[in-house]
Amino acid sequence: MTQPTPLRAEHLPTALDLAASGLPPLPLRAGKVPFGNCRRCANNACGGRPNMKTPGPCACPGPCHAWAAATTDPHVINSGPWRRAWLQAEAIAYHPGGAGLTVVDLDNADAIAWARENLPTTQTVPTTRGEHWLYLGSMQSANAVRPGVDIKSTMAYARWLGFGTGTMTALPDAVRALVVSRPAPARPAFQSLTVSVPGRGGECRHRTPAFLERGIAMAEQRITEAREAVHATVYRTFLAVLSTHGRCGCLTDAHVARLFTAAQTKGETARHCTEAWANARTTLGV
């Protein structure tokens, strides 16, 4: 008989210690991804964090909204819904930007060698495949700023793997420049067009607010309610949205941001979202 996975009772005390030190923690479920939104917060129905740009307002008692759920409030961390999440959690993460920190995530030996040659030494934490270099100061997060290097600060989370060694250095311009100089991601180039529908006069029907809003809301719901094969569901959903709305110019960056937010709430990375969107566009030729 298969034995159940033991409850991770040690996570709650660690989370409270992190909060007391100024690091906003959050629990990670299996796969080392945040807990998904509860039914109450599905499709951002709670009204908080509609674009994941701010950590509130939201009165949800559980650890919803991925990185934006991270908090230093011990009463929240120790509340009933959070306690249940900590018991189910596979690991602990924290929001670096919320603590005024930036993590340079070095994913392999080559990335570490590059950092040692190009970045000032700072507090270093060993990871499974590489190292986290921690700097004092926050900035925009970005993935794949160079091979094997991600920047995790605002609107992102990093796994808690201990305090590491060394003295933390102020965030250098060399790290900030990685995001400024990185190639633009493969995002769609939207056009503002008025398209005539064959046999029907007037503007493209996709510009009808109700039609477009219903389509985006249904796509968000499909992603949010995925219980397995999330990555495949995200891709198929992007494909469906683009097949319906991708050729008339009615989509905007705000619509894409809503879809990316739903996907990231389910644990997808920004990189996976961008790749899935680009692949869907290529498949459809839009």
Question: Explain this structure to me?
Answer:
With 286 residues, the protein is of the alpha+beta class. It contains nine helices and ten strands. The strands form two sheets. Strands 4, 5, 6, 7, 8 and 10 form a six-stranded mixed beta sheet that branches. A four-stranded antiparallel beta sheet has the order 2-1-3-9. α6 (209-224) runs parallel beside α8 (253-265). The longest helix has 16 residues, at 209-224. 36% of the residues are buried. Mean pLDDT is 79; it is low at 1-7, 49-57 and 182-203.
Question: How would you concisely characterize the structure shown here?
Answer:
By secondary structure, the chain is an alpha+beta fold. It has helices at 11-20, 74-77, 80-88, 109-118, 173-181, 209-224, 230-245, 253-265, 270-284, and strands at 25-29, 33-34, 91-94, 101-106, 123-126, 131-136, 142-146, 149-152, 158-159, 169-170.
